[in-house]
Amino acid sequence: MKETKVVELDEVAIRFSGDSGDGMQLTGTLFSDASALLGNDIATFPDYPAEIRAPQGTVGGVSGFQVQFGRREINTPGDYAHVLVAMNPAAVKANAKFMKPGGTIIYDEDTFNEKHFQKAGFTTGDPFTELKLFDYVRIGVPITSLTQESLKDLGLDNKSILRSKNMFALGLVCWMFNRPLDYIQEYITSKFGKKPLVVETNLRVLHAGYNYGMNLQHMTPQYLVHPARIEPGLYRNINGNQATAWGLLAASEKSGRPLFAGSYPITPATEILQVLSEHKELGAKTFQAEDEIAGIATSLGASFAGHLAVTTTSGPGFALKSEAIGLAVMAELPLVVVNVQRGGPSTGLPTKTEQSDLLQALYGRNGESPVVVIAASTPSDCFWFAYQAAKIALERMVPVILLTDGFLGNGSEPWKIPAMADLPEIHPRIALQKEEYQPYRRDGETLARWWAWPGMEGFAHRIGGLEKNIAGNVSHDPDNHQKNCEIREAKVQKVVDLVPDLEVCGDPEGEVLLVSWGGTFGHSISTIRELRKQGKKVSLAHFNYIKPLPANTAEVFSRFKKILVCEINLGQFVAYLRDKIPGNTYYQYNKVKGLPFTVQELEEAVIKHLEA
Amino acid sequence: MSEVKYTVKDFKSENEVRWCPGCGDYAIMNGIQRVMADLGVEHKDYAVISGIGCSSRFPYYMSTYGFHTIHGRATAIASGVKCANPALSVWVITGDGDAMAIGGNHFIHLVRRNIDLNVIVFNNKIYGLTKGQYSPTTDRGFKTKTSPYGTIEDAFVPGQLVIGAGGTFFARSIDTNLKMSQDVYNAAAQHQGTSIVEVLQNCVIFNNGVHEQITDPAYRTERQLLLRHGEPMLFGEENRKGLVFEKGKLKVVTIGENGYTTGDILVHDAEESDPSLHLALINMGLPHFPVAFGVIRSVKAPVYDREMEQQVAEVRRISKVTCMDDLLRSGNTWVVKENGYEPGSGGCPGRNGII
């Protein structure tokens, strides 16, 4: 037997792919968790079809999960995968474009037959040649038959047997990348504890895959990825949707205002409602409404009744909520609206990511209807920005729109767990002096009104969608309306004192400033680091606060010759910046494919502007 | 809280009431204020939520907490108010356009959930605030500004929607009949669950007299059947007429004719869970039947807002997680030990401070 070839790598991206029903999401998640536990930094990206179960074996039904892990900070799931695990020919076809040249393809050779070639739309018996995948290490493993073999004495039906073949792939990959199986075993044992046969089945197949790698080590190289240098502390893996939900729960506890979430299920935001509904122990009330409008309407009612109110949605649902957001603007009630952006317009690409709801968030309502708009930049910092959204809403009596996206919502990364004591305090603007209470009397500094709700003695008042005077009475006075429109806008602009200054990564001045916002942070920071390693003089300014913009934005921009705004839309933030921060030369790089940026394409975009 | 005593005046706001002279809304508001004064609920615990339409200006004329919201959404917004704080007495003021058209979806789902709200549907079969277009309760063939040749659609009967959505309380009243209305509002307030009250309201400007054939005092005895739980369904001069149920249908009979005696007459059971007879009563109309008024249905069922509160309390009781710090540290976590990490060494702030 030959010696195992051991390759040391700084970072590796693996893509697991198969039919929607093959369990690739779980396989990827377990591998990611095991890697994080070993001390690697990781970033994940589930890429799944809109159809729950498209016809088996077809390209449309391929579900993928990419994870990048490494010994350095990992900010993206990787542009291209070094290793592809493909459970059938369709998975190879769907994912070939996401492969790094020279990478390794591990495939279930039992599925590489005429029937599957046809389903996947191959016209010859050689999919690799057909896809021009010449330069790759191809490792065919009879995953299906080895899974069957390892379970033959358990008396299971074929369907149950085939269901566990993802564990074979997982075991094999764990061997290749030197991941001990302990964590995965524990997971399986606790998850299926009440079904000993299921535990037995999964563990057997997992070990069969692992041992297969060990026994045939001449075929598969083994890779070593050392732990990253990470800030010491207690960690967990978290995805963006869970982090958003937890951030809201944390804000509720900190502010003392109980949480109410009225929402309607919509991909890719649904998980936030699911997570919140799990945590009644923290007093959270969740209301699955009959539609998107009732979702925000019930929340606004709860806000009127003194709760920290949130509603969660995605693009089309966000459109339906517009009118009620306008009411929240007029009534000046605290409300957090989370939009996990997806590909649009209309139903668009429900399971894919995009940043194309920015202008809708800023302007998509009737009348002069200003709201605070902020955006999270990584899966784990959804926690912080959800918390911050709630803090701003409660302290400034204003609706806050939090933009995340499918990439952040579904993607996960390790997260250093914060202590509640370290989070900033939240002081809801609860009315105190009933003698002088008028619903639209304002704080001179922040312009925020005071919050009083039914049940509070002595503060009874009326509010609503009609224009009002200070006392809350309907007013059609022209001057009053102009004044109030200006006040509502000014109130949002005053939030700037809660917004940290914009930071520049790289040189403080220079030729090109890459500007990005929201969920593209991982790709833009990686781009800047890579280019600076190559000696290029480029810098990054990444935005989380869109309205209001950080106070020093114009000053930062003035130090650069070219402002290159990169976003996953056709140029929405750049249009906003041209309007709000005039006098600069803006360039733009846009992509709307339902996919995140790649670092490679961002590098090319920046270099083009450096040379031009 | 029966020691709490208020007068009607305590519920009036300083705002000038701006409904048209002679509008049925005045009488409805008077009736509701009287009931509120006597309910034993503290003034601070009332919330009045409305949508859009003439009736929806209601909260401005009340001294209680009030929220004048957006078209069709009052039931949904009020659901949020009540679920947030089930201790409140929450009233929804809406009309046939607001509740049956743009708000139809929220209406049926509110009824289905049985949230403890008191919903007063002002039914004048017309859009008043937009000056006279047909509504979902306008009768087929009726001519309005948007149906100059008559409508070609059938009307919703609010009570049918309530029954169809599994409703627990439905009552019908007449704007100007103060006694009947107050009894009904009071019963709606006492009922635990969604109470739907349809008030036949007269729009003096755009649909004057639409209910006249039913509501005019001259027709009261012959054309109105006031239902009272446990009492026979009698009406007419000296209560000579009554309802019987024959061959699967309701039938009007006269006592003393064709061998019918008082003992044959149906006795109203508002608390019967089977809604079949309630639906038949809701469907009755001129010219062959009187129109049913009073509390037609009032049955006990689980109340959403209370159940929501109980679920939270129950999970709190059994959960090991008692605060956010517990949750943050629950499940799969791991400790990263000293590993040579130095903060800020890369020049750019990174996630988690990792460089």
Short summary:
The complex is a heterodimer of chains A (612) and B (355). Chain A is of the alpha/beta class and 612 residues long.
Give an overview of the whole structure.
The complex is a heterodimer of chains A (612) and B (355). By secondary structure, chain A is an alpha/beta fold. Helix content of chain A is 37%, strand content 22%. In chain A, helix 10 packs across helix 11 (270-278) and helix 19 packs across helix 22. Chain A starts with 5 loop residues before the first strand and ends with a helix. Chain B has helices at residues 25-38, 74-84, 96-102, 104-113, 158-164, 178-190, 212-215, 220-223, 276-283, 304-318, 324-328, and strands at 46-50, 65-68, 89-95, 118-123, 169-174, 195-200, 224-227, 234-235, 241-246, 249-254, 291-298, 334-336. In chain B, a hairpin with a 2-residue loop joins strand 9 (241-246) and strand 10. Chain B is built from eleven helices and twelve strands. In chain B, the strands form two sheets. In chain B, strands 2-1-3-4-6-5-11-7 form an eight-stranded mixed sheet, with helices on both faces. Chain B is globular, with a radius of gyration of 26 Å. By secondary structure, chain B is α/β, with parallel strands linked by helices. Mean pLDDT of chain B is 94; it is low at 345-355. The interface between A and B is large, with 93 and 75 residues. Strand 17 of chain A pairs parallel with strand 2 (65-68) of chain B, so a sheet runs across the interface.
Secondary-structure blueprint:
The complex is a heterodimer of chains A (about 600) and B (about 350).
Chain A: E1 6-8, E2 11-19, H1 24-37, E3 41-47, E4 62-70, E5 81-86, H2 89-95, E6 99-108, H3 114-119, H4 127-130, E7 137-141, H5 143-150, H6 158-163, H7 165-176, H8 182-191, H9 196-215, E8 222-224, E9 233-239, H10 240-255, E10 259-263, H11 270-278, E11 285-288, H12 292-304, E12 308-313, H13 315-320, H14 322-331, E13 335-341, H15 358-363, E14 372-375, H16 381-396, E15 399-405, H17 406-410, E16 412-416, E17 462-464, H18 478-493, E18 504-505, E19 510-517, H19 521-533, E20 538-543, E21 545-547, H20 553-557, E22 560-567, H21 572-580, E23 586-590, H22 599-611
Chain B: H1 25-38, E1 46-50, E2 65-68, H2 74-84, E3 89-95, H3 96-102, H4 104-113, E4 118-123, H5 158-164, E5 169-174, H6 178-190, E6 195-200, H7 212-215, H8 220-223, E7 224-227, E8 234-235, E9 241-246, E10 249-254, H9 276-283, E11 291-298, H10 304-318, H11 324-328, E12 334-336
Parallel strand pairs in B: 1-2, 1-3, 3-4, 4-6, 5-6, 7-11
Antiparallel strand pairs in B: 5-11, 8-9, 9-10
Helix pairs in contact in B: 1-6, 2-10, 3-4
